[in-house]
């Protein structure tokens, strides 16, 4: 088991950092490569992450050729042959995001079987909206032996109102609707940049998706789709993670090619605290002096609200800013576990249901800590940068799902950080 070891206390991150393609974009994009019956699909700017390897295995398990050229960050997919109906349990069970292959397989084959994703540490992660939307399009859904089985001779366009703007459900239903008979309207749809990226690829494949990025998506069904070429959008959460890292270490960092539009809520909160965030030709520069920053209140919301995937990292910033900050997590029901670990480093905080009160500005001490999920891992490593002494972060399999060369990039910016194998 690897550990990341940080000698913290006087880190000031300086320099520039490059950002990878977005994990939360490339996973649904890979699911979309199931749809074309002619031509190959080439995805560029693909990040080298364990979740990408897992999704590649899921798609390969459908009798689809998937080639990942890591040197080029490029995946080429040929789905022109007959594809299987059942996604491989061994890989689907590793990553709940695999559920977004359900819609594409069903739309293409008329039948699909995908294992029911479990919950995870941050919440129960239901998929009721995915299933209700497919039923609205005429699919019959039933569960058998832990699998979801969906059947529809031909999906029919439907008008579906989503109780919650679920990212995964919006992606699954948008992809299914591309091959349905007639027009589908998804109301109260998710508006994240990753939804827009998926709609862009689908339209390059010959689909007719409009309204991506707004709360109403309209998809006019077509007979079939063809392969396309597409650059994966930059990872706004990795970019945001480095913005927070610069802010909490009184640093001066240029996040190269970062997209201002994709991080407006985060940038506005950083500015409210007194962090200097400005757009430059080459990207977004973040400068700060922690001693001058003010505490804030943040509430996570579906896009364009403050992203829940930046919540843990932002609490690490709140921990070093003198005064009482408040974080309200409205999207997931159990996403404050990193605060329990930070307590071991001297952070005082109270958690009451969806609200964490953070008493920032305490002297933090390095400690041995465990990460419980992907973003918690990043938050604990960032906290280690500012805590006095040595911090060891374990359970790095979570980190490797969503960050490429995270500690190398931090070391490049001046952090005293290394990764060691335990054995
Ligand atoms: C995606 O998960 C992301 N994962 C998550 O990122 C992200 O936190 C989340 O969107 C919200 O932005 C990927 O894109 C691979 P949701 P997803 O469906 O699609 C409820 C990370 O750290 N819900 O929008 O699963 C659900 O309980 C990960 O990169 C239903 O009630 O998110 C949750 O409270 C973590 N019924 C809320 O919606 C449903 O059918 C958000 O879930 C579906 C969801």
UniProtKB/TrEMBL annotation:
The active site is at 120 (proton donor). Pfam families: EPSP_synthase. It comes from the Bacteria. Keywords: Cell cycle, Cell division, Cell shape, Cell wall biogenesis/degradation, Cytoplasm, Peptidoglycan synthesis, Pyruvate, Transferase. The keyword Cell wall biogenesis/degradation applies. One of its GO terms (molecular function) is UDP-N-acetylglucosamine 1-carboxyvinyltransferase activity. InterPro entries: Enolpyruvate_Tfrase_dom, Enolpyruvate_Tfrase_sf, MurA_subfamily, RNA3'P_cycl/enolpyr_Trfase_a/b, UDP_GlcNAc_COvinyl_MurA. GO terms for biological process: cell division; cell wall organization; peptidoglycan biosynthetic process; regulation of cell shape; UDP-N-acetylgalactosamine biosynthetic process. It is an enzyme of class 2 (transferase). NCBIfam families: murA (TIGR01072), PRK09369.1 (NF006873). This is UDP-N-acetylglucosamine 1-carboxyvinyltransferase. The gene is murA.
């Amino acid at each position: 088991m690897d550990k990341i070891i940080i000698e913290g206390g006087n880190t000031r991150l300086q320099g520039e950092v490059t950002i990878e393609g977005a994990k939360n974009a490339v996973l649904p994009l890979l699911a979309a490569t199931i749809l074309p019956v002619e031509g190959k699909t080439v995805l560029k700017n693909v990040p080298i992450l364990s979740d990408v390897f897992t999704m590649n295995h899921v798609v390969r398990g459908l009798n689809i050729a998937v080639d990942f050229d890591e040197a080029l960050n490029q995946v080429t997919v040929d789905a022109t042959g007959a594809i299987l109906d059942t996604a491989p349990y061994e890989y689907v069970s590793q990553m709940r995001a695999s559920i977004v292959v359900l819609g594409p397989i069903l739309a293409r084959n008329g039948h699909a079987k995908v294992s029911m994703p479990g919950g995870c540490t941050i919440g129960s992660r239901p998929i009721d909206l995915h299933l209700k939307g497919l039923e609205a399009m005429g699919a019959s859904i039933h569960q058998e032996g832990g699998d979801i089985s969906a059947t529809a001779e031909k999906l029919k366009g439907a008008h579906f109102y989503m109780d919650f703007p679920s990212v995964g459900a919006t992606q699954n239903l948008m992809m299914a609707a591309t091959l349905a008979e007639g027009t589908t309207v998804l109301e109260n749809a998710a508006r994240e940049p990753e939804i827009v990226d998926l709609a862009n690829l689908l339209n390059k494949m010959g689909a007719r998706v409009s309204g991506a990025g707004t709360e109403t998506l309209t998809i006019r069904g077509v007979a079939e789709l063809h392969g396309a070429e597409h650059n994966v959008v930059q990872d706004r959460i990795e970019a945001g993670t480095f913005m927070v890292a610069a802010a909490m270490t009184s640093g001066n960092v240029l996040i190269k090619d970062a997209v201002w539009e994709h991080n407006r809520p985060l940038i506005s909160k950083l500015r409210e605290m007194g962090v200097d965030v400005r757009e430059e030709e080459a990207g977004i520069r973040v400068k700060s002096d922690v001693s001058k920053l003010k505490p804030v209140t943040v509430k996570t919301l579906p896009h364009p609200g403050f992203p829940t995937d930046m919540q843990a990292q932002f609490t690490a910033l709140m921990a070093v800013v003198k005064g009482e900050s408040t974080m309200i997590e409205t999207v997931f029901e159990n996403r404050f576990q990193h605060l329990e670990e930070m307590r071991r480093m001297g952070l005082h905080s109270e958690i009451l249901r969806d609200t964490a009160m953070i008493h920032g500005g305490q002297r933090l001490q390095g400690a041995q800590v465990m990460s419980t999920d992907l973003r918690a891992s990043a938050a604990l490593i960032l906290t280690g940068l500012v805590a006095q002494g040595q911090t060891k972060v374990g359970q790095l399999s979570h980190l490797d799902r969503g960050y490429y060369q995270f500690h190398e990039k931090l070391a490049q910016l001046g952090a005293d950080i290394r990764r060691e194998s335990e054995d």
